Amino acid sequence: MTHDTSPPAEIFHGRILDTPDDPFANGVLRAEECALAVVDGTITFRGSLAEAQRLHPAAPVTIVDGLLLPGLVDTHVHYPQQRIIGGLGMPLLEWLDRCALPEEARMADASHAATVAGEFVDGLIGAGTTTALVFGAHFATATDALFRAADRSALRMTAGLVVADRELRGDLHTTPERAASEAAGLIGAWHGKGKLRYAVTPRFALSSSPGLLDSCRQTLESAPDLFFTSHVNENLAEIAVVASLFPSSSSYSDVYDQHGLLGPRSLLAHNVHPTDAELARLADTGTSVAHCPSSNSSLGSGLFPLRRHLDAGVRVSLGSDVGAGTGFSHFKEGLQAYFHQQLQPDGLALGPAHLLYLATRAGALALGHSEVGYLGVGATFDAIEVSPPPASPLHAILRHAASAERALAAVFANGTSADISRVWMGGAVGHTRGCHDLKHHTTLEVVATSQPSAPHPRGPHLLKGEQ
Ligand SMILES: [Zn+2]
Fold first, then answer.
1. Ligand 1 center to residue 71 CA distance, Å?
2. Which residue among 125, 134, 228, 268 has its CA within the 20 to 30 Å range from the CA of 60?
3. What counts of helices (H) and strands (E) characterise the chain?
4. Which residues of the chain have pLDDT under 70?
């Protein structure tokens, strides 16, 4: 008597939408009612349900309700900032000073950081994000807490200690030597462990001395497959400060280039105001850009020049940029990307396939994860079920949609995290709508009700010279 020792298979059947081929290069939305066989977390068959069951007669069949999409990929998001989403009414430097940096400083408290890390990872996965490039905290202990939370969750995450040694607040400063030694500790503990990877992460050129950027370059070269991320060209006032701090650099991104920090494993967030020379150099080096439209709109940073990026050959993906961004959902981020283009005279007319590609496959490729972002044979089964609650407007829209394109457009226009009913990562369910661990349940007390925020007493003091 022989025993079948092959790993067990699971079959998924339903309406499956993905963009394996780039719609910006003539790819189209693939929309099929079909079955996937998943073995050991990998899709091994895509086709008819009958054939899937013939290949795997003992496999359980999961019927997908609504739509099955690839897991979403967020290529720019800040873990310490999720509790300050909604700081409206300020441009970048003032928002950093008044909202973001005080919250970043709270991450010195290890207990607070561990709690926020759990909330952050739950927030990402609940929004259908299964892969993310994350800015950690300015504190090694807090960044370690982020890796621990991601490791428990099965999120595919690249993240790193955020470093700065000038401007900002003194309690967020490090030194080039300390940055290197703390990074080495975190790399040793987490880089390459399961689905985790380390990213060298200077906050931005504005808060980095040349010595700190040199230290970042040395760290980047210290182990294989390390990633690099930072910010660039987000806001005109920020660009002017960077130009004054680095007079020998020809542009903002040239600061990173001069320190050897651009390349195919580098991703810069925003790039709302690039020069043509910068775009050409980003393309030459293979550096990619995270477009963060809701953040750019919220802070009034500007409208993203997508056409110029694509014409120059620069790879573009989507980032939520929580907490300047207005939430974790890439449905909203895709819609905001669409708005950014609609509002520009030379904007691209984005369709639902473009939005899905930007929210999934483009981010996966930018992060070097060719195995995710689509739902074909050979891909890892990272997927989300979009099944709006009955009686919701989106439920009715999807039931009556005239085509897959219309259904997908409606998901981007109307969808929220609450419409995602199940999330799979590596073939295992990582989230089910409505299932919360009661250990973590707390009564919601709204801490501020009617008190308007006090006017800032001295105006922004992000920069030392203004203190
Ligand atoms: Zn950011």
1. 22
2. 125
3. 17, 16
4. 1-6, 435-467
